[in-house]
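Limitations

Structures in this collection are predictions, not experimental determinations, and the ligand pose is part of the prediction. Treat each record accordingly. The example that follows, with glycine as the small molecule, is included so readers can see exactly what is and is not provided: the inputs are given verbatim, and the output is the predicted complex.
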Amino acid sequence: MKVLVIGSGGREHALCWKLKQSKKVTEVFAAPGSDAMVDDGITTVNIAESDHSGLIHFAKENGVGLTVVGPEAPLVAGVVDAFQAEGLKVFGPTKAAATLEGSKQFAKEIMKKYNIPTAAYEVFTELEAAKAYVEKQGAPIVVKADGLAAGKGVIVAETVDEALTALDDIIGARAFGDAGSSVVIEDCLRGEELSLMAFVHGETVISMVPAQDHKRAFDGDEGPNTGGMGAYSPVPHISSDLVAEAEETILRLMAKAMVAEGVPFTGILYAGLMMTEEGPKVIEFNARFGDPETQVVLPRLETDLVQVLESVMAGEELDLSWTEQACAGVVLASEGYPGSYPKGVAMSVPTVDESTGLKWFHAGTKKDQEGHLVTNGGRVILLSTLGDDLGTALGSTYEVLDASEWPGLFYRSDIGHRAVKLSGGEK
Ligand code: AMP
Ligand code: GLY
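Predicted complex:
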């Protein structure tokens, strides 16, 4: 079978790399893909992820048997509906189902209706009413732009002033454009965060192993929220009982709720969770693979990925096989990210021995006219490493990163450290 992956980031690089390993796959296309994917034997196709008719034309002309959608933007724009209307097989939610990610208000309303645990909240469109609510509730409090804002539209305000400023930015100055035409204000949850993803088709749910992402830009969880600066899996300091509870009370329940609401979900259901003293609660739902979680979860998957996708779409809950090894991934980002940053900065990436479980996943790089690698985004590249335990995996990652100079780039030096400490490792 020929497969097509829509997208170009680190998550899509990992997806293409894993699909390429499938015994059922003869060719992997990526649209638009990245130069780095070509080095892994992936065929890139110069069609933008927003060009639905171009993508459909390509899939038909080239006998693509299955299309997998990486990022949220084409999902929310209805790429799955467009493929389905042409009778093409595609793995991802319809536009209506992707609203689970595209509108935080929609997601919160379903959670409330079906008793899926999440923070208490109110929704506002008027600045003054929103401000009055913040004054009444006090801090800490969380302010979220309703729509898509590349992981940056959430402000966890420690003071009332901070929350008021966030409201001025989002509703007043429209810092996130129409994504901020309504705002969700919710209680601040405390606890460990966990990312739990599942392959879903209607009520069929095949859960993946959990991962933890590091959202803040700098060491010690300081600085602004980002799309994610590093991740690891498994998450040894969170018990498997709690993970199993979250699978039942959150993922499975949400899949059922979407069916009951008449918007059955097909694709990757991603629950961003806070493990609170009262149990797991939802911070957000995404309608696609997490980035960078995918870069540390897929390397652990031993079952053929195409077989997984075919099973879930046939309504079978396949038992997945995962390596016992841990996987760690650290992001190198452009200085300035998540604010503005330059592009086209020359970089050199040391060769790693992929046979020992090390792998570079490129998020924002390209080759210039001479074929030299340059930066081309905020999150630039991630080194993913398998190891016998988390401490070992992290040790191998940082050994490579710390041995090189990275002009114009930065990375967190504490990915996974707390997990190793809390779970009794040596770090
Ligand atoms: P989101 O884009 O919704 O995942 O939010 C980004 C980050 O903000 C999350 O990963 C959390 O660290 C934090 N966050 C979001 N909502 C809450 C909440 N209700 N309580 C505490 N932290 C939150
Ligand atoms: N890493 C968080 C996300 O993919 O939304």
